[in-house]
């Protein structure tokens, strides 16, 4: 991961907003469509020199007021304002304190295990912040086992997506799935967490540019809800709506899948050996 993600974020967002969008006149001789540093500095009420220091990573401790002014000037949505605040916090002195972070836990609290059991036959899985698969419903096992996702002593969703040759066939929308998993890796734990760094180093070697390019890209928040398109070797194409439930005290997240159409609902019922109608399509 870049040592200057805050600066990269500010620069790319500045270059992405046009003068017209920012309420400025569009003059001649513009080499790029985005805002000049002087224009953003004026809109945010800070000096050009200070903005340059932020973008170059020479100042890593902007105040909340400066972050708010930059967010307003760049017209950032709420999710990207949270991301900007997080990048600023991790690029400053707090990052030094993260080097001795606790290891990702594999322990599953009894109440969380009970919740998974009550979700049957819905496919649901519990993950820690580096993507280790900790626990799952039997519905999830029947869904993902034939895909190879649960192979090995400690299955990991990132390793599967980026290094298993079956993954691009299993996920019709592989690029979107890959983007989402990298975003989770970057945002489920502190930026300088050594366990995240170790997995990132491993995948940079084993998966190459497909992983490394995503890791080096401008940070984006992970998608916590949406639709996955899965091609299953036993029941064919599936459209699965998913919702992500955060368990921040444990450093875990639970992902629950529901059929997004009637054909998928029927296919999951066949996988579960149940009569049609056990799972209902939620649409989307």
Features of the shown structure:
5 strands; alpha+beta; 284 residues; five-stranded antiparallel beta sheet; 45% helix
Provide structural commentary.
- The protein has 284 residues and is of the alpha+beta class.
- The chain has helices at 5-16, 37-44, 48-56, 64-74, 78-91, 110-118, 138-144, 157-163, 167-170, 174-187, 194-206, 209-216, 262-272; strands at residues 124-128, 133-136, 225-232, 236-247, 252-259.
- A 5-stranded antiparallel beta sheet has the order 2-1-5-4-3.
- The two termini are 34 Å apart.
Q: TL;DR?
A:
The protein has 284 residues and is an alpha+beta fold.
SSE blueprint and pairings:
Elements: H1 5-16, H2 37-44, H3 48-56, H4 64-74, H5 78-91, H6 110-118, E1 124-128, E2 133-136, H7 138-144, H8 157-163, H9 167-170, H10 174-187, H11 194-206, H12 209-216, E3 225-232, E4 236-247, E5 252-259, H13 262-272
Antiparallel strand pairs: 1-2, 1-5, 3-4, 4-5
Distance between the termini: 34 Å
Calculate Rg over CA atoms: 22 Å
| Main beta-sheet strand count, sense and barrel state | 5 strands, antiparallel
> What share of residues is helical?
40-55%
Tell me the β content.
5-15%
Helix count from the secondary structure assignment: 13
Strand order of the largest sheet: 2-1-5-4-3
Shape: elongated
Structural class category: alpha+beta
Low-pLDDT ranges: 93-99
Give the SSE string. HHHHHHEEHHHHHHEEEH
